[in-house]
Records
---
Amino acid sequence: MATKTTEYGKNWVVKIAAGVTTIDNLTSTGWTQSRDVRDTTTKDSADDEESEVTIRHRTLPFSGYLTEATGAASIVTLQGLLANGTIIVFRAGPTTAGTHYWTGSGRLIKLDWEGPFDNNVTLEGEIRPTGMVTYSVN
């Protein structure tokens, strides 16, 4: 019987080509996809609703910890990308050979960080792709 390797979340990275920023120390990341549909029902539809797919929606949320090694430079870079609405090139997914990842262009649309007094500084963000996204294999 063939076996399949599980793509563990701990193997995922999010890389942004603007400034070549790697968002590491991730605690979670995801990939959300949906499609809009438009109604194409006519009088000839025999009382059945008909539709066609239209626009694709995708978002790439991520969260993780800031460290001294990545914190200051990454937060400055990410803040600039968000403030300026800069188009970025991103790569998201595991780096393990044989696993899948996504690449495309998009904008950073959310950036939050929190620094509790007795815990690690956390970072949350979201990238919204614009245009085509490519699904490839390492």
---
Amino acid sequence: MINRHIQQFMKPTTRYNLTLWGANAGMLVIFVAALLPILRAGGADLWRWLYAAGAAIVLVCRIFQPMDAPTLRARRLKKMEFWSGVVWAVGAFFVFYPKAGPTDWLAFFLAGGVLEAYASLAMPAALKGEEKGRRRK
């Protein structure tokens, strides 16, 4: 039996679905924008605007994403996803900042990616651990 709090958390709502799909679309835009300079595709400034747009989309979606997780660990992971959006937004600032080095934005891109990957991979384990903990009691 799954705890009713976990069922409520896993039950998709319209707001949750919109923020989830929006954040995923924004992350795809960010990753495509990061590939453009490597592949030498697109214009000189196209990747900058795509990166900034993707970072803005992810940040807005993470701000409005519901934080109603059943456990403290799951809430912490949700906040970590928010901070990955903030890190990508800071990277978007360095894309346009004239005194920044040519690869300063790359450090923020990678840091945001590491935060997002960890939070995304640890969330199912946190929810499954909560379910197992409830069964033992």
---
Amino acid sequence: MVKEGDWITRVRDGVEKGIKLKRGEVNGDEVIPTFVGGVIPSDGNVLRVLFNKPTIIGPMSLLGLKLQASGPIVHLAYLSMDSSNPNIMIFSLDRLILASETAGLRYTQPGGGITDESGNDVPTFAVTPVTNNSTQV
């Protein structure tokens, strides 16, 4: 439980800043939204991205989010939030990911990118493997 006097890290517009909570700031949402994992389902044409909490896609989000696959370049387009889990964003892919491919996701917070409902930015993360469940050949 975060309480008055605790030191926390607040991320806004891609910049981390250590702050000491003052009276009245205790109820703020200071849990930083982070990437948990990604899955390419059997159809191979979407990417499901899981965060630790509900997130919002900002106007600059796709500038920072990149899927690196072992085949040709892949471009992402935001499709929707998962209707049964608000922590999952769904992105369409401009080509099929084949069953034989490996893939990883990376994100560079561009400012105006993916945030939580309180405006905390998803921090930059290096290429992280995603699960490829594609059955496409």
---
Amino acid sequence: MKKVRDCTLDDIPFLIEKAEHFNDRYYGIPINLYKLANYLTGLIVAEQGVVLRTDTGAITGVHISDPCRDWEVLVETAWYSEGRDGLRLLDAFEHRGRELGVDEVRMTTLEVNAGVERMLMRRGYTSIETSHRLLL
């Protein structure tokens, strides 16, 4: 499969496998598979959910209305691929944002993925906030 397509409920095992790869590589915090499966199910069946995949990766997001402004946003919630499908997924995600009529696509990158950050900046993304965490 070279193309990007919408996920169905049948894709949940694939999405869980990709989430586990991502988690093992970057977080190492145990995944609750029941919670993850429920979350993915919700994204796939919800009108606001966007869940796209290729053979090697996936991108997920939620279409939200800004609670304070007349502004529609497609917020990426996960993006993971192996090989060169990452750009194909991003292209499709941005295209879906245009189809939905959003004002903005919002992406998140990890500190360790400076190359991804640079690529997003070259595509016209701007940095709007920085996230920090405190492990307790």
